[in-house]
Design goal:
alpha/beta; Lyase, Ornithine Decarboxylase, Chain A, domain 1; TIM Barrel; 9-stranded mixed sheet; 8-stranded parallel beta barrel; 27% helix; 20% strand; elongated; binds pyridoxal-5'-phosphate
C-alpha cells in the first residue's frame, strides 16, 4: 500500500533539564513527576550500552551501528560507552554528526547512491575511506570525487531475492550476482580494500537467511575470481515484539559463522555487520497521552507522522504497551484490544494494533509504548504541527526482552 507522507521541518526533541533527572527513576515515577502533555521519549542509556557491549562481544568482526535507525546524540554516546567504535553512515549529515561527536570513530559510508559533494566532503573533510556501491557509475563517481585515491575501501552491495524479513529491503539497492562479480573485479584494480555486502531485510526472524545470503555471496566470489578483504553481512537482526519472539542472538551468530566457514575465506578477511534495530529498539519507549476515547479507539498525542510511523498502515508493527494511571495505581482489570488514532487530521494516522490495554483506559491516562528506540524518533515529522516532544532518561528495564541480549538485572519483569 502506498502511504503519502507530507513531511516538513520537525522541531528537535527538547531534553528535560538534568536537574529533573533522578537516579533510579523508572518510567512510571517519571510520568507522575512530569505529567507530560506532549509525547515523552524515554531513553535507557544503560540498555543501549549493554546491547552494544553484548553485540560487539558476540559478533566475530567489526560492528557498524546503522546511524539512521536512531541518530540521537545521547544514544550514540551510550553505544560508544558500550564499546561501539564503527558507524554505518548513509548521509553526509550522519557522517558530520558522528565525526563531530567522536574524532576517533571509524565511519563507513554505506549508502549505495550518494551525491558527488557528499562523497567528496566525507573523504576530504571527515576521513571516510570506505564507500559502498552497486553500479559502475557510482564507482566512477567515487574515484573522481576522491581524486583517484589509493586508500579506498570499496564495498559492492549484492542484491538479495525477497526473503521473509518483516521489513523487506530487496528491490531498491544491490547488483545482480553477475554484475556484482564484475564490479568486484573492477574495484580490485583501484581499491586498497575490496568488500562484498548484502542486507537480508529488517527484523529478519530466520538465522538461516544469513546462511543463504552467504551461499549466494560465495557464488559471486567464485564468479569474480578475486580476493576480498571484507565481507559485510549487513543488518536485519531482530528484536521482540508482542507476538514475535525471535531466536536468540547466538543462533544468528552461529548461522553466520557456518555460512562464512563454507566460503573458505583467508583469515585476513574481516567480517562486518551493520545492526540498527537490534542495538537500539529496547533502549527507548515513548509515553503518549490519551486525548479521547471513541468507539473502542484511543486518540493519542503521537502517531504515524511522529514516532509511531511503523505502527501505521505501511508497516503495521504491534508495539508492547502498558497503561499508566494518573495516580500511579496498577490496573488489575481485564484487558481489551484497542486501536490508536494519532493527533493529526489525516485519517491515515491510524494504528490498528491491536494494542492490549485495561478495558477502562480513558482520557488523561498515559501509555508507555516500548521498543521505539529503532525507527521511532528518527521518523518524526512536523506534519500538522504535532511535533513538540521531549526527552528524559530513565533507569528501568525495557517492556520486552529480546533473547540473548541483556544481563539478568536489566531484563523485562
Ligand atoms: C545499508 C543498511 N545497513 C543497515 C541497516 C540497519 O538495518 P536493521 O535496523 O534492520 O539492523 C539498514 C536499514 O535500512 C540499511 O539500509
Amino acid at each position: 500500500m502506498n502511504v503519502v507522507r507530507y513531511r516538513s521541518a520537525v522541531a528537535p526533541l527538547r531534553h528535560a533539564p538534568r536537574s529533573r533527572h533522578r537516579a533510579g527513576r523508572g518510567i512510571v515515577e517519571t510520568v507522575l513527576a512530569e505529567r507530560p502533555d506532549e509525547p515523552m521519549h524515554c531513553l535507557r542509556p544503560h540498555v543501549f550500552a549493554a546491547s552494544a557491549e553484548r553485540f560487539t562481544k558476540a559478533f566475530p568482526g567489526d560492528v557498524l551501528y546503522a546511524v539512521k535507525c536512531n541518530p540521537e546524540p545521547a544514544v550514540l554516546r551510550a553505544l560508544w560507552q558500550g564499546g561501539l567504535r564503527h558507524f554505518d553512515a548513509a548521509s553526509l549529515a550522519e557522517v558530520r554528526l558522528v565525526r563531530g561527536m567522536f574524532p576517533d570513530a571509524v565511519i563507513h559510508f554505506m549508502h549505495p547512491v550518494k551525491t558527488r559533494s557528499a562523497i567528496r566532503t566525507a573523504y576530504v573533510q571527515h576521513r571516510v575511506r570506505d564507500f559502498v556501491l552497486d553500479t559502475p557509475d557510482e564507482l566512477a563517481k567515487i574515484l573522481e570525487e576522491t581524486g583517484d585515491a589509493r586508500d579506498l575501501g570499496l564495498v559492492v552491495r549484492l542484491a538479495l531475492p525477497k526473503g521473509n524479513a518483516v521489513y523487506d529491503l530487496s528491490g531498491k539497492f544491490g547488483a545482480s550476482p553477475s554484475d556484482a562479480a564484475a564490479l568486484l573485479r573492477t574495484c580490485r584494480r583501484f581499491a586498497a580494500r575490496v568488500g562484498l555486502s548484502f542486507h537480508v531485510g529488517s527484523q529478519c526472524l530466520e538465522p538461516e537467511a544469513y546462511e543463504r545470503a552467504l551461499a549466494l555471496a560465495g557464488e559471486v566470489l567464485d564468479m569474480a575470481g578475486v580476493a576480498i578483504d571484507l565481507l559485510d553481512v549487513g543488518g536485519g537482526f531482530p528484536v521482540s515484539y508482542p507476538d514475535e519472539v525471535p531466536p536468540p542472538l547466538d543462533d544468528f551468530i552461529a548461522a553466520i559463522a557456518r555460512g562464512v566457514r563454507k566460503l573458505g575465506l583467508p583469515p585476513s578477511c574481516r567480517l562486518w555487520s551493520e545492526p540498527g534495530r537490534a542495538l537500539v529498539a529496547p533502549g527507548q519507549s515513548v509515553v503518549v497521552r490519551v486525548i479521547a476515547r471513541k468507539n473502542g479507539a484511543l486518540y493519542v498525542n503521537d502517531g504515524v507522522y511522529g514516532a509511531l510511523s511503523d505502527a501505521g498502515p505501511a508497516v503495521g508493527f504491534r508495539f508492547p504497551v502498558r497503561l499508566i494511571l494518573a495516580d500511579g495505581s496498577d490496573h488489575a482489570g481485564e484487558l481489551r484490544a484497542f486501536e490508536f488514532f494519532g493527533p493529526t487530521c489525516d485519517s491515515a494516522d491510524r494504528m490498528k494494533g491491536p494494542f492490549l490495554l485495561p478495558a477502562d483506559a480513558q482520557e488523561g491516562d498515559w501509555i508507555e509504548i516500548g521498543q521505539l528506540g529503532a525507527y521511532g524518533t528518527a521518523l518524526r515529522t512536523g506534519f500538522n504541527g504535532f511535533d513538540q516532544a521531549f526527552l528524559v532518561e530513565v533507569d528501568d528495564r525495557p517492556l520486552l526482552e529480546t533473547p540473548g541480549y541483556l544481563p539478568a538485572a536489566m531484563r523485562a519483569a
